[in-house]
Structures are given as structure tokens and as C-alpha cells.
Amino acid sequence: MTNIFDIISEARIAASRGWDKAWRSTMRAPAADSPQALARVIETEILPRLRAPHSNNLPRLRMPHSDNLSDTGVNRAAVPAGAAEQFAAAALTDEVRGLLDRVDTLLAGGVPVETIYLDLLAPAARRLGAWWDSDACDYFDVTMGLWRLQEVLQALSTFGPWSAPSGASARRAFFAPAPGEQHGFGAALVEEFFRRAGWQTWNAPTTDLAGLEEHVAARNYDIVGLTISVERHLEMLPATIAALRRASRNPDIIVMVGGRVFVADPALAEQVGADATAADAEAAVAVAERLLAVRLRAGSVALAQRG
Questions:
Q1: Which candidate, 41, 58, 271, 86, places its Cα nearest to that of 33?
Q2: Which of 1, 35, 103, 170 has the highest CB neighbour number within 10 Å of its CB?
């Protein structure tokens, strides 16, 4: 059976000769006529095939020292300067095992797991996006790089500490890339921070508006978080947020947005109709908990007044 990496390699080579040949090499099927069609093939055919058998055999990281898992601030080593950009470059070419070896080295040096999330994986993902925007990388390379980063995130997610959700009163959050976005790494990273903070979390790697509406109608979420990295997708976001509020089982749902465009200009969050944004995944948890506490207090006051 042909290895999926061989198929992708074939498709990349064929892409240099024309998108129609790239399509045929990837799908073994009749040609498509656009890069967008090939992008859909990667998203719907290649990545699911990668995730299904490969994730079950994901190499294990070495257990970090307990200091790496504490939030006391003691012995918290930093990610070296320039490491995130090097990690992004390695994600384009190295297998996952090579990336995990780099993470193992940081863990052994005393870098906490959360610091690796915030100061290695997140900026590496942003760097991949910037390279894509500047045409330094093509869709194949960026997609594979972000998939490898997500495999590293999955391996790190087995390490604590995390707080257990508290039964019926557990806070619930749903995360997804905004409609039109091709990659879900940012949503997965934010979800991990909420999960570690004791929230019940759900994540949709990619979906259209109808799929998002189904998700928020199915459960009583406290928070829905949308990530966006491409500025042109902002135009659709106000209508998306309004539709999710209408579809939500929770009429008081809090909508948060994140991604490169909001880091660059936080005021955009209010302009698109969201309740808040945050500079990073760790800050997003604090913002969400503050907003939820305010909303719950307001609900309690309103209930008391009606009584």
C-alpha cells in the first residue's frame, strides 16, 4: 500500500508541472481545474487518512519533571530566542518524531508545557501562516506543517496539570476555525488551555456555518470560540456570529474570537460582533472566566428581581 507521505510528495512534484497533474497524482482520479479544488482534496482526503492510522501510533514524549507541570513560577525555563522560527521551519520538512525530540530537549531543560504551547507552538503556527501569506510556502507545506504541530500538541496534551470538570455545573466551550478558514490548529490550541483549566470542551477542526449552527444548537455551551487568520474572512464574521447567537441553545452564549488578525488589532473583535478576544490561549481562559462570572451574576440578579 502506498505511503501517504509518498502520495503527498508525488503531488507536490506534480504541482510544479501543473495543478491538473497534482490532482491526478493525489487522488488517482480525473483532473480538477483549480488550486482550490486541490486544497479541498488535501483537507477532505489526505488529512483524514493521515490522522486515522498515524495518530494511534504517535511517538510518546518523555514525562517532564514535575517542575515543568507546576504553575508556581519556580524554575520556569524559557524557550530560547529564535526557537519558534526554527521549529516552524522544521515542521515543513521533519517527521513528527524529529519535532518531538526537540520538545523533549526543552522539557528536559525545565521549560513548562504551557510555555511550550505559548512560546513555541503558537508562534511557530503564526510563522507558517506568515510564510504562506508571503508565498514563501505553498498550501501543501503549510498544511503538513500545521498538521505536524497538531500532532505535537496532541502528544503534550497527555501531561497535566489539569482540573476536572465539576459535574452538572461544568463550564462548556466549543472551538472551531471560522467558516472559510482552512486550518484548525489555533482552535485546537485554545481548546487545550480551556480543557486544562477544567472546562468541558469540544472542537471542530473545520466546518461550514451550517455545521457550526448544529454544534451550538446541540449543547448548552457557555462559550463559543472562533479562530481566524486570513483577513479576507473577516467580512463573513459578523453574519456568522449573529447566526450562531440565533442558533445557540444558550441565549446568553459568549462569543470569543482569536487569531493573528485579532492579535494585530484587538478592536476588530467588537467590530465583528464578538464579546471579546485575547492575546493568547492562556489569556483567553482568564477573559472567558471573567465574562462568564459577570454574566452569571447578572442572571442571578435578574432571577432574584423576578422572584
A1: 41
A2: 103
* Distances from the Cα of 262 to the Cα of 177, 267, 271, 274, angstroms: 13, 8, 11, 11
Confidence at residue 254, expressed as pLDDT on a 0 to 100 scale = 97
DSSP character at residue 265? -
Class for the domain spanning 167-306: alpha beta
Whole-angstrom distance, CA of residue 295 vs CA of residue 6: 52
Q: Can the peptide bond before residue 161 be classed as cis, meaning omega within 30 degrees of 0?
A: yes
119-158 residue pLDDT tens? 999 999 989 888 887 888 887 888 889 889 989 998 888 8
Residue range 69-83, pLDDT digits in tens: 444 444 468 999 999
Q: What distance in Å separates the CA atoms of residue 181 and residue 177, rounded to the nearest whole number?
A: 6
Same fold, 68-161 and 167-306: no
Cα torsion at 188, 194, 197, 202 (round to 10°)?
Answer: -80
Helix (H) or strand (E) holding 201: strand 200-203
DSSP classification of residue 178: P
Q: How far apart are CA 260 and CA 299, in angstroms?
A: 33
The three-state secondary structure class of 177 is strand
Task: Burial-class residue 107 by CB neighbours within 10 Å (0-12, 13-18, 19+).
Answer: buried
How far are the Cα atoms of 4, 34, 58, 263, 265 from residue 9, in angstroms, in the given order?
9, 19, 21, 34, 37
Tens-place pLDDT, residues 230-270: 788 899 999 999 999 999 999 999 999 998 889 889 999 99
Identify the band that residue 18 occupies on the pLDDT scale cut at 50, 70 and 90: very low
Q: Which three cell numbers stand for residue 6?
A: 509518498
From CA 214, how far away is CA 248, in angstroms rounded? 9
Q: What is the CATH number of domain 68-161?
A: 1.10.1240
Domains of the chain, residue spans: 1-57, 68-161, 167-306
